[in-house]
Amino acid sequence: MRRVSEIGHFLLSLQRDFPRRDLLLGSLIAALVVAVYLSPSDNNTMPALIAEPITISLESRSELREEDHQQLAWQEHLVGRGDNLSTLFQRAKFSAKDVYEISSSPKGKSLRNLYPGETLRFGASDVGQLRELHYIKNPLESQVFFRDEDSFVAEERVREPEVILSYREGVIEDSLYLSGKQSNLPDKLIMEMANIFGWDIDFVFDIRPGDSFALLFEDRFIDGKKLSTGNIVAASFTNRNKNYQAVRYTNKKGESNYYTAEGLSMRKTFLRTPLDIFRISDGFNMRREHPIHKMIRAHRGVDYAAPRGTPVYAAGDGKVIEAGYSKANGNYIFIQHGQ
């Protein structure tokens, strides 16, 4: 009875909301709804629902690869001079088909240019099938190829070295380079220190015995072994009883420069020395005797001598106004500073 009452209210609402010419059509639709709604249902024909527990493995592909990785037989080959992918696969007792499958994979092009010193590690199953190939470019970068049915997929792996701060100090006895070597400083840090303070100190004319320096720098390690020397973090140099300090700072854009303790840039308008390694072959002298003509001719400049290939820096920002070759100057570049 409750169902019939609800349907009656529904029909009355239709009568109020619809025009008279639509009542006939509405009545037919309502009659069909009532017939369907009130018709008896056969509960015996309803399908039975059966619940069964289903075991779902949550083991990921990476875990499966790790398990497979531990069961492989490994061999390692160092890339030598004249080696290519085919010769290395031959040496490891793998077929030309393996070479084709891995070199034709989406990232297999990287294996076409191998360099001496790089390493290939081959992982084979118990039946001798190549399952993994590790292309180790250097201690920090590698590319790993995994067999996926009849092809290979690859992933890049990059390791971060452990950075440890180291400290060195020393006293100048003869030259900056020799004193730095006595303090067990690598060449890279000696040159970097000269570049940092080269805006304030001329390491040819200004340096004196008794000057001192101190460096705080990065040492990079991987698996407990020293990988390389990093950047200078902070430095101090005392020249003629005047102390200069520099601290490395990296801004939000990733650009790194050196600043004083007051926050001023170490870079000045002009460099004091334009070369890292050099000797002065001829200084500024208004009364110099010309080495060839044996006549007094003014030498309005300073000549630096350095090994072939030594970088030469501009003394400051400027505009190249001329470049070329002459018998007097050799290869030359004229730079105009300021206006």
Overall description:
By secondary structure, the chain is an alpha+beta fold. The protein has 7 helices and 14 strands. Strands 1-2-3-4-5 form a 5-stranded antiparallel sheet, sandwiched between helices. Strand 3 and strand 4 (141-148) form a beta hairpin. Helix 1 (2-17) packs antiparallel against helix 2 and helix 6 packs across helix 7. The longest helix is centred in the first third of the chain and has 16 residues, at 2-17. It starts with a helix and ends with a strand. The mean pLDDT is 80.
Structural features:
7 helices, Nuclear Transport Factor 2, Chain: A, peptidoglycan binding, five-stranded antiparallel sheet, 339 residues, zinc, 22% helix, LysM_Opacity-associatedA, alpha+beta
Summarize the model shown.
The protein is α+β, with helices and mostly antiparallel strands and 339 residues long. The protein is 22% helix and 31% strand.
Shape: elongated
Specify the oligomeric state: single chain
**CATH fold field value of the largest domain:** Nuclear Transport Factor 2, Chain: A
What is the mean pLDDT?
80
Percent helix: 10-25%
How does the helix and strand content classify structurally?
A: alpha+beta
Q: How many individual β-strands?
A: 14
CATH architecture of the largest domain: Roll
How many separate domains make up the residues? Answer: 4
- The N- and C-terminal alpha carbons lie at a distance of 104 Å
Query: Low-confidence segments, ≥5 residues, pLDDT <50?
Result: none
**What's the order of the H and E elements?**
HHHEHHEEEEEHHEEEEEEEE
Main β-sheet, spatial strand arrangement: 1-2-3-4-5
Radius of gyration: 40 Å
Number of helices: 7
Largest sheet: 5 strands, antiparallel
CATH secondary-structure class of the largest domain: Alpha Beta
Please report which band the strand proportion falls in: under 5%, 5-15%, 15-25%, 25-35%, 35-45% or over 45%: 25-35%
